[in-house]
TrEMBL record:
This is FecR family protein. PANTHER family: PERIPLASMIC SIGNAL SENSOR AND SIGMA FACTOR ACTIVATOR FECR-RELATED, PROTEIN FECR. Keywords: Membrane, Transmembrane, Transmembrane helix. The keyword Transport does not apply. Signal peptide: none annotated. The keyword Transmembrane helix applies. The chain crosses the membrane at residues 109-127.
Length: 344
């Protein structure tokens, strides 16, 4: 079974399970054992939480039914979404639960089927409004989107997600993200960052929005990248990378894919990288920031692999490689070149 078909089958199964829980909750209070079971089911996967909220939203929107949500259930969802293996999702506004007479098995199956089928349409209500995600210094997040795509969001990053029937639009306003796109030929997946557009159907690619421009690296599949004010896109295949700047033409080259996505393991790999970019990357992960106090250092280039959470190793590397003066305070690590005639 291919990855896409496996994911599609999994999504259908999860939606069916979520529908069953929604129906159980609509018919009255769960007993202690059932609540433990629901707690375990929600904790086991972020997709379970997302499916449950989407089915609940579809249920709540129906003119015939009320959402099976109560304060205790909202507390349960809040608790399980706080776990490290569950993606935080915005819950709907709680409503007063409605007690109903028990339905027959045929009625329950019919409702379950209608909810699952309706989700294909009504889910758009849940995702039409933009969802925003952000990370702080040193924080990384894994975000399961409503279509089955997954986003790995790097530190100090921010994105907004807006899905419609015709396209899946994501805006990366700052930072870096790795996108694993669920294939849907009828709705292209588009990432917009600083005016550049990255269009894909089903693929995996990394977008890095930093102060020097936008870098797009394709891990697998193909994407089309369009520069701001350009009419023709640049097509990239797996292993390609393009760098986009405001005043330069797109530069396409072969990339080390492992290096491009090493940040997901908090590893930073530099290959002849300007020191200014190295400092920018380290400052993403650490509250105590590097500051270059000597303009002559900006032209230096770095090769090496570092732990993003251990800036002291970069200090040691730079001190051994160059004749540096390092001044450390609680807020900053200031770098100055002692001997301006020193070579690289």
């Amino acid at each position: 079974m291919s990855r896409d078909s496996s994911r599609r089958a999994l999504s259908a199964s999860i939606l069916e399970e979520a529908s069953s829980w929604v129906i159980e909750l609509s018919e009255g209070e769960l007993d202690a054992q059932q609540r433990v079971q629901l707690d375990r089911w929600l904790r086991s996967s972020p997709q379970h939480v997302q499916a449950f909220l989407e089915i609940s939203a579809a249920w709540e929107e129906s003119s015939r039914l009320k959402a099976p949500r109560d304060a205790e259930l909202d507390a349960l969802i809040a608790r399980v979404t706080s776990e490290s293996n569950v993606v935080p999702l915005a819950a709907s506004k709680p409503t007063t639960p409605v007690r109903r007479e028990p339905r027959s098995l045929v009625q329950r199956l019919a409702i379950a089927a209608s909810v699952v089928l309706a989700t294909g349409t009504l889910t758009w209500w849940a995702v039409a409004r933009p969802d925003s995600y952000s990370t702080r210094i040193g924080e990384q997040r894994s975000i399961a989107l409503a279509d089955g795509s997954v986003v790995q969001l790097n530190s100090q990053s921010q994105l907004r997600v807006r899905f419609s029937k015709n396209e899946r639009l994501v805006e990366l306003s700052r930072g870096q993200a790795l996108f694993e796109v669920f294939k849907d030929a009828s709705r292209p997946f588009i990432v917009v960052s600083d005016g550049a557009r990255v269009k894909a159907v089903g693929t995996q690619f990394d977008v890095n929005h930093h102060k020097h421009g936008i870098v797009v690296t394709v891990v697998e599949g193909r994407v089309a990248v369009t520069q701001p004010n350009a009419t023709q896109p640049t097509y990239l295949a797996a292993g390609d990378r393009v760098t986009l700047g405001s005043n330069v033409a797109p530069r396409t080259e072969r990339a080390n894919v492992d290096s491009a996505v090493a940040w997901t393991h908090r590893r930073l790999i530099f290959d002849d990288t300007p020191l200014t970019e190295v400092i920018e990357e380290f400052n993403r992960y650490n509250v105590r920031r590097f500051v270059i106090n000597d303009a002559s250092l900006e032209g230096f280039h770095i090769r090496g692999t570092f732990d993003a959470n251990k800036p002291e190793r970069l200090v040691t590397f730079l001190s051994q490689r160059f004749d540096l003066s390092v001044v450390e305070t609680q807020e900053e690590i200031r770098l100055t070149l002692k001997n301006t005639s020193a070579s690289q």
